[in-house]
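Quick one: co-fold with N-propyl-tartramic acid.
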Amino acid sequence: MAGAAAAGLRSLLCALLAFGALTPAAGRTLAFVNLVYRHGDRSPIVAYPTDPNTEKDWPQGFGQLTQIGMKQHYALGQYLQNRYHGFLNASYDRYEIYVRSTNIDRTLMSAESNLAGLYPPQGQQIFHPGLKWQPIPVHTVPVGQDKILLFPLKNCSRYTKLVEETENTDEYKKTLMENKDFLDMLSKATGVPREQLSLEYAWSIYDTLFCEQLHHKTMPAWVTPSVMEHLRMLKEFHLQAIFGMYKQEEKSQLQGGLLVKQILQNIEQSLKVTPTLSPKLIMYSAHDTTIVALQMALNIYSQAPPYASCHMVELYKEDNGTFTVEMYYKNESSSAPYPLALPACSQSCPLDRFIEIVKGVIPDDWDKECGHTSNHFKIDLLLGLAGSFCLLVLIFLAVWQYCCNWSQHEGYQKVSSGIEGGKKMALM
Ligand code: PT3
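Sure, here it is.
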C-alpha cells in the first residue's frame, strides 16, 4: 500500500513537473532571455497651442531622452548585469547578446545607456583609461519597415476597421458622452479645436503636461491633480480601445502578436542552434505602446508602462530536460520585478503549453490578415496584365500586317497592272 502510494505520489509529482506546476529549485538552468523595455524619461513630443513652454525649453528639443532617462536605463543595465550574472559573461561577448531598437533617438540612446550599465569595460576591453564605456552595437530598421516594435502599426486596413468598430460600440460612445464637459474644458484651455480633440489628442496633451510637470516647467492654473488624473484615465481608456476592449484577439493578431511571434521564433532558434553560436539574450528597446501591445496580446495587460519598464521572457531548461517559460515585469526601479503568468498557465509555463495558449494571436500572413493583397499576388497580377498586354499587341500587329498585306496585294494588282499597262503603252 505504502509502495503504491509512493509510486502514485511520484507520478503526480512528475505530472506536475511536466506541466510546470512545480519548479524544482536545483538543477534547472536559464537557457535564453528576451527583454522588451520602454525608453527612459524624455522631453514632450509636441506642445499644445496654448502651451507656455516651447521646444526651446528643452536642452535637446522635443522627443529626446533626458539625463533622467539615461540614468534610468543605466540603472536597468546594472540591474540586468546582476540578474544575469553567471548566465551572461561579466564582460561583453558579441555572441551572447543582440540588441535591436526602434529607429528613434530616445530608444537608440536608451539602449546605449542600458548597455553602458550592463557591460562596463573590463581589463583589455578598456580602450581609453578612465572611460567606463565601450561601444556595443544596437541594430535597427527604418521606421516604415519596423513590424515588431512600433505599435500600433497603422498601415493595416482590417485593424483600422476594427478601431472604427470599437469607436462605434456603446461602451466607447458612452465614455465619450460622459467626458464631453471635460473635453470641452480641455479644448478651451489648450486651444485645440473641439472637433480635433480625439482621445488620442487628449493623450498627447496629457503626455506633454506629464513631462512638463516632472521637469518643473511652468504649469497653467487649470492643470490640477484631478485634471491630470482624469487625463490619465482617458489615456488608459484609449489604450484599451486601440489594443483591447473589442475583438482583442483579432487586434492582437494584427499588432502585438507580431512581437509574440518574434519572441517565439527567437526561442525556437535558440533551441535549434548550437548555444555558442546563438545569442543568449535578445533585447528590444522600444515604447510604451510596444509593451502595451505585447501584454494585450498575452492577455496580461494591467496599466500603461512607466519609463524604462522592462518585460522579461525567460526560457528555463528543467532538470528533467523539458523547457518552461517564465515572465517577469520590472516596472519600478527600486523593487524586484514581479512575476507574470498567462491567464491559462502557471507562472512557470511549459513551453509547449505557452505556444498553444498564444497561438490565437500569432498572425500567419500579416498582410493577408490586414486585407492587403500579398506581394506574390501583386507580382502574379502584374505578370498576368503584362502577358495579356503583349498578347493584345501581337494580335493587333498580326491584324495590322494582314490588312496591310491585303491592301498592298490589292494595290499591287491595280498599280502594277496600271504601270505595266502604262509601260506597255509607253513601249508600244
Ligand atoms: O513615451 O513610450 C513613449 C511613446 O511611445 C513615445 O516614445 C512615442 O513614440 N510616442 C508616439 C508619438 C506620440
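If it helps, The longest strand covers residues 29-38.
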